[in-house]
């Protein structure tokens, strides 16, 4: 469940005054010192005993610039060795207009309860490190020392945030449970923020009061709205496979600046409408101006399009050309970082450089092309209530040919035409046109993860199965396999690594077709030999036909999941086996066919087997027809996997004819 409320920062006043303050550093209760397990979650490896944060807008005395003054303090109980991870801290420090968020007053201590009182070990400041994550983000990292089960760790610090647009969000929920978490925001009356609470957990309390003359701005005293948000008994957020950014679902509160009302009477709007954003993007030197650089491709077009006769083949030729011309430097971005002319010259660029170049080249070829800005899966979902340009971290191309549209990303050399990388499959993108208003467009996978495996083999009396295995892959399955071949350096190396992983299967001669024909099935053919049993000559032995694509672990283990299962794309996996048996062996019983499915045609698993004389024909089908399953479908999906696992444990019994 996701709960959202929006406040247009109209003040809500409580009678009387609100009292809430930071807790005292290094002063513990007996219950905190003696805690062995957390009563509300006996499986917890660590628990946040207390957490406090406060943020207010302040003014720099030298530059007269506004900034957010943020104070953080937490105390955590380590319950097991697995809880040591809770002692790793990472603090994000963003860079705006070449100014980095500043961290100060870091205090970090580990307390171990010995000889009747807690003995502190203070983290040396020399063990605090800074890592450059991207050009716009640095990470301050440190790990608390002298950890043991039973330790209490405590940290506090102050952070100066130079960008007041997003104020300072607060995350109530994390990967370990919290007993209590309190956040205080103090916002001057002239600043009008949209405030959103997301996640399944509810606030325990929320109180707001008016504080008179809390700040002086340009010589004018200004009142503030001081709000206290408290959440108690917060369960740990359990991450599972097949989810987008955890930040989409953890209970948190965020702030986005809507407008500033000046003392002179005017107002500066920061929350814009899409018309404003469209104008900002199309007139930007790093975005719209790059889309218009069709002149850079005029001379090359006759060569690029020499074998193309129709709009689709022309689009494919341009797409292939850009993929070869500019190598992705693995930086994201909706804007061109170097400008596409330089990216073409240096053959390197970020996402914006590559895909804005693609848009310009397609336009130069006379193909209707638009830009689509989006937020990647790791970045989180975009705000659909009002435009927030900072929500978007990526740009792709949208090609319109006839009544069909194709979404293109030229950053990945092995992506077929029209297939997006899974990182881009995340809700909706905003289509930006140089001449028309922008609009939303669904970001959907154009193909499933599709595999077909076919084994034709014979079983000899000594237990060896010898035959030919052919696998057909398309969509994301083919992309993954082609990437592995490329990473291995050659098909020979890829097959060798494959043979090393398949410990029970020996791989002989092989053939791989369509490695470079990205729009076609990737076809792998192998001569294989495997042992079905270790002791030949037995009157009875067991054979399991699920050695191909066997499911041994259920990816869904929660009793309840409050966020969707997001696969990104549907799944279609099929296995077919034709096995010739020795003349003196038969199946003890005819294998039973099975079929289980999800409600609403959401997916199914079925098997069928037939025996004709000494030949077994076996097939299995596993499909997930929806890219996204909602929380109320979770238990059905979990049950489907459980039945698949149980079914695939079933052996077929062969016995010798007497």
Explain how this protein is built.
By secondary structure, this protein is mostly beta strands. It folds into three domains: 7-269, Immunoglobulin-like (Sandwich), CATH 2.60.40; 274-442, C8orf32 fold (Roll); 449-656, Jelly Rolls (Sandwich). The protein has ten helices and 37 strands. The strands form eight sheets. Strands 7-6-10-3-2-12-15-14 form an eight-stranded mixed β-sheet, with no helix packed on it. Strands 27-28-26-25-31-35-34-33 form an eight-stranded mixed β-sheet. Strands 1, 11, 13, 16 and 17 form a five-stranded antiparallel β-sheet that branches. Helix 5 (311-325) packs antiparallel against helix 7 (351-364) and helix 6 crosses helix 7 (351-364). The longest helix is centred in the middle third of the chain and has 15 residues, at 311-325. The chain is globular, with a radius of gyration of 30 Å. Residues 305-377 form the Transglutaminase-like domain. Pfam families: DUF3857 (PF12969), Transglut_core (PF01841). This is Transglutaminase superfamily protein. It comes from Pedobacter duraquae. Residues 70-207 form the DUF3857 domain.
């Amino acid at each position: 469940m996701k709960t959202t409320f929006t406040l247009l920062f109209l003040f809500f006043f409580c009678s009387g005054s609100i009292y809430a303050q930071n807790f005292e550093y290094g002063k513990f209760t007996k219950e905190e010192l003696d805690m062995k397990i957390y009563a509300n979650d006996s499986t917890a490896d660590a628990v946040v005993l207390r957490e406090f944060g406060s943020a207010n807008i302040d003014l720099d005395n030298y530059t007269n610039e506004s900034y957010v003054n943020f104070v953080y303090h937490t105390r955590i109980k380590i319950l097991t060795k697995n809880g040591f991870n809770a002692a790793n801290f990472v603090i994000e420090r963003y860079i705006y207009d070449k100014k980095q968020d500043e961290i100060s007053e870091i205090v970090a201590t580990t307390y171990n309860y010995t000889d009747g009182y807690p003995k502190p070990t203070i983290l040396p400041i020399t063990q605090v490190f800074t890592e450059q994550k991207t050009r716009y983000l640095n990470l301050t990292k440190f790990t608390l020392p002298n950890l043991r089960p039973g330790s209490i760790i405590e940290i506090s610090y102050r952070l100066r945030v130079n960008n007041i647009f997003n104020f300072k969000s607060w995350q109530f929920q994390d990967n370990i449970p919290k007993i209590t978490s309190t956040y205080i925001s103090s916002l001057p009356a002239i600043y009008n923020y949209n405030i959103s609470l997301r996640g399944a957990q509810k606030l325990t309390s929320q109180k707001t009061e008016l504080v008179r003359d809390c700040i002086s701005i340009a010589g004018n005293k200004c009142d503030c709205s001081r709000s206290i948000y408290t959440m108690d008994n917060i369960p740990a957020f359990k991450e599972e496979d097949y989810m987008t950014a955890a930040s989409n679902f953890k209970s948190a509160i965020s702030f986005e600046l809507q407008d500033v009302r000046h003392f002179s009477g005017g107002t500066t709007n920061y929350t814009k409408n899409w018309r404003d954003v469209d104008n900002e993007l199309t007139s930007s030197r790093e975005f719209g101006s790059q889309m218009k650089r069709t002149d850079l491709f005029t001379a090359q077009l006759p060569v690029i399009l020499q074998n193309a006769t129709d709009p689709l083949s022309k689009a494919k030729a341009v797409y292939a050309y850009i993929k070869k011309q500019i190598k992705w430097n693995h930086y994201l971005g909706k804007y061109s970082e170097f400008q596409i002319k330089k990216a073409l010259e240096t053959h390197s660029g970020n996402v914006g450089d590559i895909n804005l170049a693609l848009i310009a080249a397609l336009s130069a070829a006379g193909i209707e092309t638009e830009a689509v800005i989006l937020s990647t899966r790791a970045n989180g979902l975009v705000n659909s209530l009002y435009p927030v340009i900072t929500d978007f971290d990526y740009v792709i191309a949208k090609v319109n040919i006839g009544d069909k549209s194709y979404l293109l990303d030229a950053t990945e050399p092995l992506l077929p035409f029209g297939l997006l990388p899974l990182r881009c499959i995340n809700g909706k993108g905003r289509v930006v046109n140089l001449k028309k208003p922008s609009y939303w467009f669904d970001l959907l996978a154009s193909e499933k993860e599709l595999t077909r495996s076919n084994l034709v083999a014979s079983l000899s009396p000594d237990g060896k199965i010898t035959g030919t295995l052919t696998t057909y892959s398309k969509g994301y399955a083919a992309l993954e396999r082609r990437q592995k071949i490329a990473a291995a350096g050659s098909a020979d190396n890829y097959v060798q690594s494959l043979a090393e992983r398949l410990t029970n299967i020996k791989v002989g001669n092989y053939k791989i077709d369509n490695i470079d024909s990205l729009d076609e099935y990737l076809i792998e053919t192998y001569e294989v030999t495997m042992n079905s049993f270790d002791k030949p000559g037995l009157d009875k032995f067991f054979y399991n036909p699920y050695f191909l694509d066997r499911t041994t672990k259920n990816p869904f283990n929660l009793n309840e999941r409050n966020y969707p299962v997001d696969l990104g794309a549907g799944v279609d996996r099929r296995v077919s086996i034709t096995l010739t048996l020795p003349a003196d062996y038969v199946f003890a019983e005819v294998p039973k066919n099975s079929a289980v499915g999800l409600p609403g045609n959401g997916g199914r698993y079925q098997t069928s087997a037939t025996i004709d004389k000494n030949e077994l024909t076996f097939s299995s089908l596993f499909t997930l027809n929806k890219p996204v399953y909602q929380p109320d479908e979770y238990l059905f999906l979990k049950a489907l996997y459980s039945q698949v696992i149980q079914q695939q444990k079933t052996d077929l019994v062969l016995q010798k004819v007497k």
